[in-house]
Amino acid sequence: MSTKSELFGQVLHMFVKRQLLVRDDDSDEPTPDCQVESDYDDKNWGARISSIFVIMVTSMFGAFFPILSSRYSFIRLPNWCFFIAKFFGSGVIIATAFIHLLQPANENLSDDCLGGVFASYPLAFGIALIMLFVMFFIELIAYKYVEDFIVPEAQRAINAGHAHTHGMGNGDYAAKDFEENDSGKSADEKNIANEDPDSSVQENDSASNYLGNLLAVFILEFGIIFHSVFVGLTLGCAGKEFVTLYIVLVFHQMFEGLGLGTRIAMVDWPKSKRLTPWLLALAYGLTTPISIAIGVGIRNSYLPGSRTALITNGVFDSISAGILIYTGLVELMAHEFLFSEEFKGKEAMGKMVVAYIVMMVGAGVMALLGKWA
């Protein structure tokens, strides 16, 4: 019995001693210094200035063209072009989340020079995970608010309007915003719609869908804007990799803008919000060029490999990754393929397969660009 106790004690002693030795070795191991000198090499000055304007043009084109095409007949493209742009853009956004955000975020937050908790825990994935739950919570609250307040209020307004025979009921305030959508209907059609209970249900669904799409677009814009700021700063301060990064970011920003612009164009914007889509596209188009200009201005003092820059870039890229992963998988994939009316019925199977292939191509192209940027 004593022999077994002694053996157990020896094993326990060896285990504890080994753990202490490992801990001592880890604590004594020198940590590499973070970057203290700028990568800027004072070359390609003309190209750096041109990148501000070239990337502004390509970003603006990607963001504005789908909106323009959906509004004006003289540049309106066939429906299949918009269809391709829509699902290609979805693939681009999903690949951006994983390849262009989450991977660099993990690389920054696990850099050897940071040490401490950064070396012992995958913080980038943890932050992205938190953002997934935050986005889901926000959407839960938003839909609950629509269900409990917006839809009942709209229903009361419609019922009040029905109480007046062809009159101006209390529901007119809800209809004014969407008068553009009804402009093509005759007076008889409008009266029938106002008196039809099924039409009231459709109006409630339309309001709910509008608010859901609005929330999704703003979340998408928020995530992409975050990413665009650091992309611009990186390009403005880049050293020997500037030329490669410049070429890749031209396509990167155009494809990303195409994905965002297509989603903005899909929202049935009411008359009172007619400027909102243009402002959203403009914000995207200007963010990266302004960030490049700032990067050029601070090129000698900004250190992408410094402790502050690594943590800041890593945290914000992780936040953006979580936002875009949620938006891409839930809003752009699940809603579009599983819950949308576009692919209902057996006859839509071929169309769904084409959309899926286009989305994979978009993701593949954006993922390939991740080899250089």
TrEMBL record:
<feature type="region of interest" description="Disordered">
    <location>
        <begin position="180"/>
        <end position="204"/>
    </location>
</feature>
<feature type="transmembrane region" description="Helical">
    <location>
        <begin position="245"/>
        <end position="266"/>
    </location>
</feature>
<feature type="compositionally biased region" description="Basic and acidic residues">
    <location>
        <begin position="180"/>
        <end position="193"/>
    </location>
</feature>
<keyword id="KW-1133">Transmembrane helix</keyword>
<feature type="transmembrane region" description="Helical">
    <location>
        <begin position="353"/>
        <end position="372"/>
    </location>
</feature>
<feature type="transmembrane region" description="Helical">
    <location>
        <begin position="45"/>
        <end position="68"/>
    </location>
</feature>
<dbReference type="GO" id="GO:0000007">
    <property type="term" value="F:low-affinity zinc ion transmembrane transporter activity"/>
</dbReference>
<comment type="similarity">
    <text>Belongs to the ZIP transporter (TC 2.A.5) family.</text>
</comment>
<feature type="transmembrane region" description="Helical">
    <location>
        <begin position="310"/>
        <end position="332"/>
    </location>
</feature>
<feature type="transmembrane region" description="Helical">
    <location>
        <begin position="278"/>
        <end position="298"/>
    </location>
</feature>
<feature type="transmembrane region" description="Helical">
    <location>
        <begin position="210"/>
        <end position="233"/>
    </location>
</feature>
<feature type="transmembrane region" description="Helical">
    <location>
        <begin position="80"/>
        <end position="103"/>
    </location>
</feature>
<keyword id="KW-0813">Transport</keyword>
<dbReference type="GO" id="GO:0005886">
    <property type="term" value="C:plasma membrane"/>
</dbReference>
<protein>
    <submittedName>
        <fullName>Unnamed protein product</fullName>
    </submittedName>
</protein>
<dbReference type="InterPro" id="IPR003689">
    <property type="entry name" value="ZIP"/>
</dbReference>
<dbReference type="Pfam" id="PF02535">
    <property type="entry name" value="Zip"/>
</dbReference>
<dbReference type="InterPro" id="IPR004698">
    <property type="entry name" value="Zn/Fe_permease_fun/pln"/>
</dbReference>
<keyword id="KW-0472">Membrane</keyword>
<keyword id="KW-0406">Ion transport</keyword>
<dbReference type="GO" id="GO:0071578">
    <property type="term" value="P:zinc ion import across plasma membrane"/>
</dbReference>
<feature type="transmembrane region" description="Helical">
    <location>
        <begin position="123"/>
        <end position="146"/>
    </location>
</feature>
<keyword id="KW-0812">Transmembrane</keyword>
